[in-house]
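[step 3/7] inverse_fold.run input=structure_tokens len=365
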């Protein structure tokens, strides 16, 4: 509970001070987006941890097709290697990359392979949603997990069936479109908000009026800000200048709860109307104490085990506390006064929301 109180107090101290951020960290230029690529390939060189062809027939088919393209015929020849694994290769192709540029790829097992450690990905074409090949991936697979198995025990750490290849893909085809092809410049907010959009417009106009003698930004809605590039200024220079301008983004009041891990994140503007809260826990203990009953000598009886069960219930007295506050620091202090574990605080926050006293959006994950 002390650790939870420290974490909540630390978060409240961070949120208490309004932080200014750069415009380029909370928005992006429309049209400058990543493109997802995917490919199907084979990883070879595994040490007996690959796919079994009996359960992964597609691995056998892919191997035969690859060997056929190399001029090696294996049709009709039974093969049972365990050093090959079928994988799905994925990557995000950043915008404006030219041919010959390298990028990272992620490799994930598709069959029943137990580990990709030590494997090498054979050249795999990677296509986009339009079916066109934009990159080719190949290289040594690096994984962060491992799996060890014996006759009676198995130890697995991390995910040994997925890994990455740093700079493992080479761009073979450029994505259509360049920065100069963008007709209308529009900034898109990553977290839409009306106040944040106005803050961005005011910051850009204050800068461009001083430097270029004109207002260059106009709000369209809570997500989009329209830009007008000054004459004789390139798009690259203009975006570089306004990207470093500082604003204070706003956000709705939210309380996010992860019931699985007991994580509670409270937004800066979250408030609780003053309420009285009490919380009590009941603990039930069941104790089994088997007794062995021995028969008398020469009685032809049998030894039996008679069960003996003891059940007890303890209910901790709930402490009544006044919870409420106009800022995050007061709210955290009020919750800490109750002295509960994260599961108890989660239950209280849900009950306060049901009572209408939590003035914030409650998100339960």
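[step 3/7] decode complete -> sequence:
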């Amino acid at each position: 509970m002390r650790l939870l109180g420290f974490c909540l107090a630390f978060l409240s101290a961070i949120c208490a001070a309004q932080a200014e951020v750069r415009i380029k960290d909370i928005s992006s230029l429309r049209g400058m987006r990543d493109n997802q690529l995917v490919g199907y390939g084979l990883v070879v060189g595994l040490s007996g941890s690959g796919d079994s062809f009996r359960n992964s027939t597609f691995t056998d088919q892919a191997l035969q097709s690859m060997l056929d393209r190399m001029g090696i015929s294996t049709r009709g020849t039974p093969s049972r290697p365990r050093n090959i694994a079928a994988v799905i290769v994925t990557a995000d192709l950043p915008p404006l990359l030219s041919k010959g540029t390298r990028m990272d790829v992620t490799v994930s097992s598709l069959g029943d392979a137990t580990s990709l450690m030590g494997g090498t990905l054979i050249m795999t074409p990677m296509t986009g949603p339009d079916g066109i090949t934009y990159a080719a991936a190949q290289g040594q697979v690096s994984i962060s997990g491992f799996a060890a198995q014996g006759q009676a025990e198995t130890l697995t750490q991390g995910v040994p069936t997925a890994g990455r290849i740093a700079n493992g893909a080479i761009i073979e085809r450029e994505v259509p479109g360049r920065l100069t092809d963008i007709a209308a410049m529009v900034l898109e907010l990553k977290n839409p908000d009306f106040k944040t959009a106005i803050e961005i417009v005011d910051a850009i106009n204050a800068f461009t009026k001083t430097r270029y003698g004109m207002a260059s930004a106009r709000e369209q809605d809570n997500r989009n800000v329209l830009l007008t590039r000054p004459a004789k200024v390139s798009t690259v220079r203009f975006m570089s200048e306004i990207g470093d301008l500082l604003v204070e983004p706003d956000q709705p009041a939210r309380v996010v709860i992860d019931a699985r891990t007991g994580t509670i994140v409270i937004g800066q503007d979250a408030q609780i109307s003053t309420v009285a809260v009490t919380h009590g826990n009941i603990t039930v203990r069941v104790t089994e104490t088997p007794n062995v009953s021995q028969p008398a000598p020469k009685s032809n009886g049998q030894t039996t085990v008679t069960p003996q069960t003891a059940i007890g219930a303890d209910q901790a007295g709930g402490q009544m506390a006044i919870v409420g506050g106009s800022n995050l620091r007061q709210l955290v202090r009020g919750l800490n006064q109750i002295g509960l574990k994260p599961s108890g605080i989660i239950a209280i926050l849900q009950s306060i929301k049901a009572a209408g006293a939590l003035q914030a959006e409650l998100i339960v994950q």
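[step 4/7] annotate
The chain is about 25% helix and 35% strand.
The first strand starts at residue 21 and ends at 22.
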